[in-house]
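This week, study the protein below.
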Amino acid sequence: MKTIPIALFTLVLGLASCSTPNQTANNTENSQKPSVIASYSVLCHLTETIAQDTVNLKCLIPPAQDPHTYQPTPSDSKAISEAQLVLYGGYQFEPQIIELVQASNTPAPKIAVSEQAVPKPMMAEHEHAHAHEHEQEQTKEEHKEGELEPDPHVWHDIKNVIAMTEIVRSQLATLNPSQAQVYEQNAKAYTEKLQNLDNWVKAQIATIPEQQRTLITTHDALGYYINAYGLTGSEALQGMSTEETPTASRVKELVGTIKQTKVPTLFAEITANNKVIENVAREANVKIADQELYADGLGEKGSPTGNYIGMIENNTCAIVNGLGGKCTPFQ
């Protein structure tokens, strides 16, 4: 039987004893940070920008997923039940997550950030009936033609994101008072950047010839952007939710509108099914913009569109260049 030399045995014990306190300290530090949930990418980015590393932040809906149709996982439910603060959009933007949040009976604050930031939202038509699954039973929500509902895509107006930033800051400060000054400083610095971005978008849109400022997209998600930044018209194949399927008559109507208004470019979206709008472009003999729009959130983390400012810059330059303007990069 082989024996382990005493010197080697002592060295192994020494290394183990040296590494364990550091690992324990890191685990303890993380466990002492407040646990925060953010439902989708824009909220996640705002929270991360303000809180930095002072909280344990979990983002539920990945950037590549469509919040309208996202199906929560068991880990999402567990994270919501354990969180000390839950931030979600509201206005039925992420319906399955909202169901989970509202069903949770924990004492943690559950904040519908978009609803608080924009208490008087734009109202838009919900054109089609759609179904949601709830607790293994299929329930159908019927929406009458012409019925108006709150538009949940509030972040496409930068002024709304400034309001959202303040709500996130306030909630974080209440949750973690010892870091309130840090949150105040970070929110102030970010708000200044957003104000500059707001002015930049207006200047870029102004370069588009007035007769060409009609935006045609896959689904009706950019109403706030259109109203805030001087576009004069908009059309979309679908309503506010990507679950909706455009009818043949809607496709025909849109082709006619494009030919009548002489819109030069249509815009596809990252998380939407763009096959139909590609067919519309072929029938109307117009092009699809080279850059897709981010209508329902941000790009992958670490990419140029993985932050709010980068996403707005991408969308703005795609729209401006596609409609005959000249976009200058945001500085």
User: Anything to note?
Assistant: The chain has a mean pLDDT of 86.
